[in-house]
Amino acid sequence: MGDVMRPIPFEQLLERMFSEYQQSRSIFGIPESQFYRRNPARQMRVFGEVCDTPVGPAAGPHTQLAQNIITAWLTGVSFIELKTVQILDKLELEKPCIDAQDEGFNTEWSTEFTLIKAADEYLKAWFALWLLECLFAPRTPEQGRSFIFNMSVGYDLKGIQQAPMQTFIATLMDAADSPTFQRYRQTLAQWIADVDILFDGVVYHDRNALATLPERIPSRLVTGVTLSTMHGCPPDEIEAICRYMLEEKGLHTFVKLNPTLFGYARVREILDGCGFDYIQLKESSFLHDLPLDRALGMLERLLVLAHQQGLEFGVKLTNTLGAGNHKHRLPGDEMYMSGRALFPISINVAAVLSRHFEGKLPIYYSGGASQLNIRAIHETGIHPITMATDLLKPGGYLRLAACAQELENSAGWTMTAVDVARLETLAQAALTAEYHQKAWKQEETIEAGGVLPPSD
Question: Fewest 10 Å CB contacts: which of 185, 303, 413, 447?
Answer without folding.
Answer: 447
